[in-house]
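Running this now, will post back.
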Amino acid sequence: MENVEESTNEMEEEVGKVMEQARELQEAGAGLISMISNDEQSLRLKANSLDSSIRHLRSSITTVLSQKLLDPKLADKLEEDLQTAICIITDGDAAGFLPANAQGWYLRMFLGPISVRASRKEIQLKAKEEYNSYR
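Update: finished.
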């Protein structure tokens, strides 16, 4: 009888420990998600700011070039560098932090509004695989 009570008490203690560990894990997970969300928001703001800066610089180069205040060769080089920066942003891992471009009328007509942006490479690849298998 005493053994049964001891094993019951031990089970209760172990269940209590497991419950406490589950709560701690939940709190740690919530903290991590919050931290990741804050970091992601920061990266989104930086990406939007950089995209805006690139657009502004392009406009400035065009304006200065039209007023003939800038050497055309230098303007071409600057434009090429800006294009490289755009490619780095839009084709690289930072693309997931940029706002989605509006789809064209033709795509919207057939597919509806689509916004597939993923911040992690594995998720991007999985989405591509699912899309290709659907096609």
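The helical segments are 2-66, 72-91, 105-111, 121-134. More later if anyone needs it.
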